[in-house]
Amino acid sequence: MVYTKIFLKFPNKFWPCGPGKEFFIYAHERRGYYTFWHHMENAYPGSNILVVTLTNDESKRVESQSDEETMKEAMVVLRDMYGPEIPDATDILVPRWWNNRFQRCSYSNYPMISNNQVINDIKAPVGRIFFTGEHTSERFNGYVHGGHLAGIETGKTVLEERRKDERQNDKQNQNFLLEPLLALTLTQADAVSSLHKCDVPAQLYLSGKLGIPEAIL
Description:
By secondary structure, the chain is α+β, with helices and mostly antiparallel strands. The chain has six helices and five strands.
């Protein structure tokens, strides 16, 4: 889903404000052409900012052109609504979520007929790379708090994987420390087991620790 909010800054406000006057709609023969507008005075008094919302095909079209072209189009629409005497915008902000190679959209929009396996496949880690965001939230995909909750869940998963690595490293370090002792123990056992049962008395006799009768017995 591509959803573009374009912000236009003006030197002063020329649109109506007050209760019930936050949103206004522009009717055009082209579907979705700079249709939905609202001002920011309620949220940020004195900001003199207008916001227009575009979606899908219109969003992709606007993202492919320059900010100057977009401002020119928006000003034609505003002058059609409020007259030719309104001031020019002094600044414009056009997000380009669709053309961002790390995004390719504004937010996810799964079909109504789908299952959780789709989301599980999308958020499945690749090696040591984990994925998170609103698109990996089963309940709140498409919303900011969906991205927040998914980030918490993925963070916990990453920490648990790190703990597994630490436990594995501790186990390997213990084996590394025990290997010399095990090797020494095995060497001594192999040395004893390699002696024939008659070799021990013979060696003791030759060393003078046993006499002939004891050695024979």
